[in-house]
């Protein structure tokens, strides 16, 4: 796609191969900026042989998508584009995009900002990249963290920033399923969800997602546990769900919780990461201190009268609309982009939204 010169454009940069939490965040961010009349483009670090699901979704929203590393382009081309077009800001997501844009923007004097999403410490080679990404935060004009735990891992004082979703076209769910939605991996604790299905054999449980633990979870699973695999589009799937169980060992502020609560789906979650900033226990959902307490909360919720359940669901929706929607977050973020170019700042001073 040929670029149009827009000097106040915000460039969102991400390396995307599959469609996960960070990709969903970037999609919501791009859509929110566009709806707030802030010009925005999305740059993918690499064009992989398999078409990008994120690119397809963005293009369906008429949001322009470009590639840094493609058949005829490279980081050098990206560097030249920055010099020629002078975007308002470059906003990176994920360690590959973050490290690349920090270096290139340093030499072009382009305001660069990184959002740090990962709360857990990665393993293997990625752990080293993650370390470099965090400690090179000193090179960024601004840094954003989506949870307190992530903030504490950075050598600067970042802006604390709520995750958010677009709520204008979301309708309440009429579903009844008890579901796990997300990556089937150690940190998300699908083994705890499997145990829940064993402990409550009279209820049905559903897993939506894929990951390295799928075979282990499927093996010897009870008859009331159903696997639906990876979902390219969760919009219709949410309509089948009535209760979302988040039994994670580690979390930041998961978008799945926001997506569920925006639809009035009750979230029962382990009290990890920043979920306590989202869920008020017994008011708009439930928090538990241990995974063993989830079964008790499920039984308790189902014992409530229809009117009380409805009130909890309405409270969940109100929470998202008031504090975690694009309408509530975009004005502050756009102001940050504009101030980055206009003002000097220090990341060593307290920054809050």
Automatic annotation (TrEMBL):
InterPro entries referenced in this protein's UniProt entry, alphabetically: Glyco_trans_1, Glyco_trans_4-like_N
Domain Glycosyltransferase subfamily 4-like N-terminal span(s) in chain numbering: 20-152
Keywords, alphabetical: Transferase
Domain Glycosyl transferase family, residue spans: 177-318
Highest taxon, organism lineage: Bacteria
GO terms of molecular function: glycosyltransferase activity
Example GO biological process: carbohydrate derivative metabolic process
Pfam families to which the protein is assigned, alphabetical: Glyco_transf_4 (PF13439), Glycos_transf_1 (PF00534)
PANTHER family: GLYCOSYLTRANSFERASE (PTHR12526), GLYCOSYLTRANSFERASE EPSF-RELATED (PTHR12526:SF637)
Protein name: Glycosyltransferase
Organism: Vibrio sinensis
Top-level taxonomy: Bacteria, Pseudomonadati, Pseudomonadota, Gammaproteobacteria, Vibrionales
